[in-house]
Amino acid sequence: MKTNFSLKRITLDTNPEDCNFNCIMCEEHSIYSNFKENLFESQGIKRRLMPKIWISKIFKEAKKLGIEEIIPSTMGEPLLYKHIDLFFENAKKYNIKLNLTTNGSFPVKKVEEWAKLIIPVTSDIKISWNGSKKETYEKIMQKSSFYKNLDNLKKIIKYRDEYFERTKYYCRITLQLTFLQNNMHELSDIIKMAYRLGVDRIKGHHLWTHFKEIKKLSFKISEKSVKKWNEIVVKAIEIQENYRRANGEKIILENISPLKFQEKKEIPEFYKCPFLEKELWISAKGKISPCCAPDNLRNSLGDFGNYPETSISEVLKSDIYLDLLENYKSKKLCKTCIMRKK
Fold first, then answer.
1. How far apart are the C-alpha atoms of 139 and 23, rounded to whole Å?
2. d(CA 213, CA 43)
3. What is the CA radius of gyration of the chain?
4. Spatial contact of 6 and 330, defined as CB atoms under 8 Å apart
5. pTM of the entire structure?
6. How far apart are the C-alpha atoms of 70 and 171, rounded to whole Å?
7. Are the beta carbons of 4 and 325 closer than 8 angstroms?
8. Residue-level pLDDT at 176
9. Alpha-carbon separation of residue 112 from 87, 159, 160 (angstroms)
10. How far apart are CA 36 and CA 137, in angstroms?
């Protein structure tokens, strides 16, 4: 079995309960979700919050393992985690970069205060963005404010650029999208806006259809919808080719590529997992996972242990993890995973 690999990144889902938005596609916070109710009924869990004492210990082990980045929570809004300052402190102490995914509201503090904490220790800020117009954006990212978040985006880019001028350290800014049939008609305008503002990258993924209410929004539901997506991709690539950022470079488009109709059933065998050998996830309760598939689905991949009883290095050496590396393409979940890439 293959053992000569090293992780690049760890995600710590510190505070999945904490979010000030109700994005319709979110496994936990969507208005259609009963995830938290089911969690309480099945496990008696009312509140999940990663213990403060774990943060520094995980950074220390990550440094020994040569891990380059740590991601604060992607299941809730990480900037609402009450111990988020420990991420900034440990990132400096151990020289490990943060890779931040945020809904763009920059709560609690002013965005300028967040920028001073985030930019110097962060490699990439991924800001959720699901429309070029207020109506589209707020219909999907419910409880959000399009114009407030647009102003926040401008301010974080302004601080990033000023910091780069002073220090020559560059933090990438990414817009992170979910590809839905009710927002991707605005993809061309989102790309143009990103060019104007100085965004570096637009990244996204197709919809995990957690709820019956949103299944119709997936581009993978019919041959007609796949064709519609592929037409959107062509236009997006044309804009990418014809526009240039201020530095003359093209904006990066990630995962914006054509689909085949049969991919809705099974991913081509040669598509690779982007996470195995590269990333691990640790939940607020300590559960260790090899990928970011919905919790009820990734359970089918096996039990990889719980932190702190199981260390990160122990997971990487375990039979169950090494077996997954060798055989993931035969797993039911992996055969249809929307995250696998060419």
1. 8
2. 26
3. 20
4. no
5. 0.89
6. 15
7. no
8. 97
9. 18, 7, 10
10. 25
Residue 246: closest CA among 199, 287, 207: 199
Tell me which amino acid residue 2 is.
K
Residue 32 clears pLDDT 90, i.e. is over it: no
Which residues are CB-contacts of 169 (< 8 A; sequence separation ≥ 6)? 120, 163
Q: State the pLDDT confidence band at 98, using cuts at 50, 70 and 90.
A: very high
Q: Please tell me the distance from the alpha carbon of residue 298 to that of residue 269, in angstroms, as a whole number.
A: 19
**Predicted local distance difference test score (pLDDT) of residue 338:** 75
Q: What is the mean pLDDT of residues 3-22?
A: 87
DSSP-assigned beta bridge partners for residue 97: 69
> If you search the block for the tokens 């020559």, which residue do you land on?
168
Task: Say how far apart CA 185 and CA 228 lie, in whole Å.
Answer: 9
Which of 189, 329, 176 minimizes the C-alpha distance to 266?
329
Q: Answer yes or no: is pLDDT of 264 > 60.
A: no
Decide: 8 and 278 in contact? Cβ < 8 Å: yes
Query: Can you read off the two tokens belonging to residue 292?
Result: 């970011």
Q: List pLDDT tens digits, range 123-172.
A: 999 999 999 999 999 999 999 999 999 999 999 999 999 999 999 999 99
Q: pLDDT digit string (tens) for 211-251?
A: 889 999 999 999 999 999 999 999 999 999 998 887 888 99
Is the omega angle on the peptide bond into residue 51 within 30 degrees of 0, that is, cis? no
> Residue length, the chain?
342
Mean pLDDT estimate for the chain: 91
Per-residue three-class SS string for 278-313: CEEEECCCCEEECCCCCHHHHHHHCCCCECCCCCHH
